[in-house]
Amino acid sequence: MISLAEIEKVAVLARLLLTPAESQQMTEQLGKILEYMSLLNEVNTENVEPLAHAVELTNVFREDRVTPSLDREMALANAPHRDEECYRVPAVLGEV
Amino acid sequence: MSLSELTASQLLQQLREGRIKAVEVVAHSLRQIDQYDPTVGAFLRVNRDHAFAQAEEIDRRRSRGEKLGKLAGLPVAVKDNICTQGEPTTCASRMLKRFVPPYDATVIAKLKAADAIIVGKTNLDEFAMGGSTETSALGRTCNPWDVTRIPGGSSGGAAACVAARMVPLSVGSDTGGSIRQPAALCGVTGLKPTYGRVSRFGLVAFASSLDQIGPLAQTAEDCALLLEVLAGHDPKDATSIPQPVPPFSETVRQPLEGLRVGWVREHLGEGVSPSVLAAIQEAIKVFQSLGAKVEEVELPHARYAVATYYIIACSEASSNLARYDGVHYGYRTDEKAMLAELAEERRVLQQQGKSEALEDLDTALVRMYRKTRAEGFGAEVKRRIMLGTYALSAGYYDAYYLKALKVRRLIRQDYDKAFQKVHVIVGPVTPTPAFALGEKINDPLAMYLFDLFTVGTNLAGLPAISIPCGFSEDGMPIGLHLQAPPLEEETLLRAAHMFQQVTDWHRRRPPLLDRQAVAT
Amino acid sequence: MAEQPYTIVIGLEVHVQLLTESKLFCGCSTKFGAPPNTQTCPICIGMPGVLPVMNRRAVELAVKTGLALNCEIARFSKWDRKNYYYPDLPKGFQISQYDLPICRGGYLDVPSPNREGMRRIRIIRVHLEEDAGKSMHDEKAGRADSRIDLNRAGTPLLEIVTQPDIRSPAEAKAFLTELKLLLNYLEVSDCNMQEGSLRVDANINLHIPTEDGQYVATPIVEVKNMNSFRAVERALTYEAQRQYEAFLETGHRLGDVPKQTRGWDEDAQLTRPQRSKEESSDYRYFPEPDLVPVTVTDAELEALRQQLGELPADIRRRLQETYHLNDYDSDVIVNQGRAFVDYFCQLADTCGDGKMAANWAQQDVLRTLNERDWTITQFPISAAELARLLCRVKSGELDTAKARMVFGHMVDHQATVDEAIQSLGIVQVDETELRQLCAELLASNPKVVAEVKSGKDKAIGSLVGQAKKRNPHVNPARVKEICLELIRQETT
Description:
The complex is a heterotrimer of chains A (96), B (520) and C (492). With 96 residues, chain A is mostly helical.
């Protein structure tokens, strides 16, 4: 139902690193699950509008007013890697 | 009467009348936790000192005649996917093991304003993904009725701590049954409100269009008390409904005249264990004896609910969990090791002259994301992220996600039609009572199918409650599921209370409590 | 302009930051220039459990922009998640609009760069979305890191996409200039590229005519990283030429190769191939479950339409028609903003001379504003008072040089015309007195008179100098006029 190659593509899209064993297992498990999902093909959904929100509200807004921000120390408190001012990550288009 | 015998409502009354003090209630709660939690494992963290300090303060204020909140002095446990300022909120995941939110969820602020005493955070399936609390990366919770069995999930800890009488009230979350199912398996009462009734601000999102926070307690009356505090419009949640909060704690005791109860043929047939079937049928008879009219209703698309639910939930989850990337908070993989690994891979590919593979090799940043998420998330979370990413991806969106949204509307329409005939729909919460720990953990699809009776409620945004209605032959609790139209929590609570007035399933206690009694 | 062996086809994708006080989904300030990570909160950091709530003003500004660009405003509009991973995108998705944007269609009429009238550039869509944070490259101890600042994350952005109607790099610059003018007038955005409140990417390719009267299209290239309107023009000029040369070399047509992304290098003045931002562009768009849709009624649209105010194109037209200004003059005035236009109009109306008002407004007033770093609202001379000064010039009472002195004094001392004239000791010389003086000068300068009579009008100049020596308050122009008049009377 889903190939190993597709699993590996999805893993990159999802930013997951799977071991070969995990990829194999994922292929089998997702395959089974997707097969079950094909049950939905039995349902005639012609002219049926999708239901994305469980609640039928519109036009919920907040007013354009400034409220206090977190002070920097609190904002960065949970950062795994930071300097005095910023979060730090390996360079965005960098090489090793 | 031992404090463990008292419901929240009864405790409140005694506190108000000055017959007991908050510090006594908290002390008792902590003793119960000390005695039983090493076995049950409901809590990830207990705030001993803070709870006592709060209790003392409340007693002081009460003695000064000050006005106190609706839950003043009552110990409450909170599922650890609800943000508590200054305290770790882990979602039972390695990813957030050390995450300390700088803000309170709206429901936490409301609990504090009501002078509830938040005693600790309870265990859950990782990121609320699961039906047994077994996917928790930080703890193991078992069913107080039988420690070899699951407590249910994902609010397993929240249900177990009430069942084991550690606290009278707990707060859980329900995306596909995660309050109702553990409530049923642990023999307590649990309610999922109408979508939008309770603010989601501060609830770590799993599936945004399905998640709701709700109360767990020993009785419907207690659930009504807690729901009244939790509910209400929140300007910080754009999906929260503007309707005012009905006086649940008052109306719960009002019996319902002319209640029309519906049942669904498919829910009472194949796949449901005999003991569950028997208990549900007995429960229906109880409602009849209370004057309710019972009739069959149809939910023609009910059999598609699980597939619809999992596609939508996993799709939304794959997006909601994208933020866990090790950049701004949470776990990050060991960068040094990661860079070394990458360098080695590059060297090998260069040596082998594999130029295409070399070009496709992850950048350091991408590798950091991938390793962080691989190490931070457990298998079930990864599985759902993969499923959701796939369902939303180009070429598959129409066949899976869009299709599911359409079937969702049909499911909703089924309910709308059924509710033209009846006030509530009854049925089982689960096909069987609690199964053994480890039994289904390697069969994801079987685990998903266990939710078949509860997921429709979330898809349609309806309120529903689970109340104890019997026991299996081997003494495991069975829950009765009642679903109602949007905003009809009062109907559910009143019907449940009526039931609990003439039955005593909800008063039974796990044998564990008698085997290892605590001196009160 | 030399004949080009190809047609340039350009479409622009413009992002402008909206002039709201707070961000799109939270109350953090949008002020530019704050120290890194001091304008963030759990919502714009994307912490677990947070939820977005839509800024009403942002939606209003989006609708106003759509109205001004002649778009169709969606009566029902919704929000979608655009999912991708980048460290300056803390949630791992951007809340944007996919299939039901707030505005569709529309156009902007742009003054053609070679003054050949107006060019209509059509708009495909305008939608609202949130901005990402900033990442800054940093090298330390041999390791390359990116430093992330989330101050900008969550700022409201309007994305404006044009049809590929633009036919030259100069026209692209003209489009951006006109768009900026319009959005400034609407108070929708500063459109300041230096501050990042306007960013633009361009899609460009060529249509090269073939012998049979058809044409061949070259592959489309996306050009990024242009930091000023001038850079846009230069980058596209470079790129057009580069594409032509590439075509001559490779013969690649549209569809032969995948779409390329190239970045403009300001220092080297060329474009370079760039790795595209997202590895795969599968954004997995789906409806944003945390935000509910937006509906707009006819009444609300009408109310917003009333709030637009006169638009720059209409003001330009009015200045030309009512005050007979030329393109250049009307441009200068309109470019200064609504308040300046109002000032000019009041000035012109009161003194009754549009051209004179335009000169004084553009030169003296504008120069002063720039020197003193004032806006027109801070300028101490009211339009009415300045008009009074201009009237004195028109009547001949003051020559231009003296008028400038008076002007200067009025600015420095916040004085009226009369007060300034008095303070400066400018005395109006009586006409009779003036005539008498001139007659005396003519009498004592027969040589000059003779020169003038023989055709050398310019010789009068020396008389003017003498007149000023005798009476510094004389109007040199009047002296000249009167002397010439008297000489001419003599000859007749």
